[in-house]
C-alpha cells in the first residue's frame, strides 16, 4: 500500500532533512544531473531512504533503477517509449505511470502498473504541465477505472487533502506545498498528521 502523502524532491539531502518529520514516501526527481553525478545522487537517496524506512521512487531513469536495485520507478508517457518494462518486472522494480487524459489512462493501464498518477489536479506549480486541470471530479472519474493505487498530483495544497482523498485518491503528491514553505519540516509533519 502507498503512503497517503507522497513528496517529490530534487536532492537526496531533502530526504535526510525530512525523515524526522515522518516522511515515508518520496520520489527523487533529478533533472539537472547525468552520468556519475546522477548515479551518485540516486545511490545516496536510496541509502538514506533504506536506513530511514522510507519508500523511494526513482523518476525517469529505468536502467539506473535496475542497476541500483531500486524498489520503485516513476515513468511518464514519454518515458514509456524507451523503458524496458519486461526487464523492470524481471528485476522486481514496481512502476508508477503518469496520466493526464483518459486515453493516456487506457494506455497506462495496459502496462499493469503498481500505481497510476493523475494530474494536474490543479494548475501545477513545480513544473509546467500543458494539460487542463482535472480537479476532484477527475479523480472520481479515474477512480472508477483504476483498481491499483491512485496518486493525485499538480498544485495540491494541504487544505485540499481531505476533499481529494474523499474523491478517491489514495496518495497525494506535492512539490511546492512543502518545499517552498517557510518551514518544510513543519509542513511535512502537518501533511503526515492530516493524512494518517
Ligand atoms: C507521482 C508523479 N506523477 C507525475 C509525474 C510526472 O512524470 P512525467 O510526466 O514523466 O514528468 P517528469 O516528472 O519526468 O518531468 C511524476 N514525476 N510523479
Ligand atoms: C512533476 C509533476 N507532474 C505533474 C503532472 O500533472 O503530471 S504536476 C507536477 C508538479 C507538481 O508540483 P506542485 O505540487 O508544485 O504543483
Ligand atoms: Mg518523466
From TrEMBL:
InterPro entries: Aldolase_TIM, ThiamineP_synth_sf, ThiamineP_synth_TenI, TMP_synthase. Its EC number is 2.5.1.3. PANTHER family: THIAMINE-PHOSPHATE PYROPHOSPHORYLASE, THIAMINE-PHOSPHATE SYNTHASE. Pathway: Cofactor biosynthesis; thiamine diphosphate biosynthesis; thiamine phosphate from 4-amino-2-methyl-5-diphosphomethylpyrimidine and 4-methyl-5-(2-phosphoethyl)-thiazole: step 1/1. SUPFAM superfamilies: Thiamin phosphate synthase. This is Thiamine-phosphate synthase. It holds the Pfam family TMP-TENI. GO terms for molecular function: metal ion binding; thiamine-phosphate diphosphorylase activity.
Amino acid at each position: 500500500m502507498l503512503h497517503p502523502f507522497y513528496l517529490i524532491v530534487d536532492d537526496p539531502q531533502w530526504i535526510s532533512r525530512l525523515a524526522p518529520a515522518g516522511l515515508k514516501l518520496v520520489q527523487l526527481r533529478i533533472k539537472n544531473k547525468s552520468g556519475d553525478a546522477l548515479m551518485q545522487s540516486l545511490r545516496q537517496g536510496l541509502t538514506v531512504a533504506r536506513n530511514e524506512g522510507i519508500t523511494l521512487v526513482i523518476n525517469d531513469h529505468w536502467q539506473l533503477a535496475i542497476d541500483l536495485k531500486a524498489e520503485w520507478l516513476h515513468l511518464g508517457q514519454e518515458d514509456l517509449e524507451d523503458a524496458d518494462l519486461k526487464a523492470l518486472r524481471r528485476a522486481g522494480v514496481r512502476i508508477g505511470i503518469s496520466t493526464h487524459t483518459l486515453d493516456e489512462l487506457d494506455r497506462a493501464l495496459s502496462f499493469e502498473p503498481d500505481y497510476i498518477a493523475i494530474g494536474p489536479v490543479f494548475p501545477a506549480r513545480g513544473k509546467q504541465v500543458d494539460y487542463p486541470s482535472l480537479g476532484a471530479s477527475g479523480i472520481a472519474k479515474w477512480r472508477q477505472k483504476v483498481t491499483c493505487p491512485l496518486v493525485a498530483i499538480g498544485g495540491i495544497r494541504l487544505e485540499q487533502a481531505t476533499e481529494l482523498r474523499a474523491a478517491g485518491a489514495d496518495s497525494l503528491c506535492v512539490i511546492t506545498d512543502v518545499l517552498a514553505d517557510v518551514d518544510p519540516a513543519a509542513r511535512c509533519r502537518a501533511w503526515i498528521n492530516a493524512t494518517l
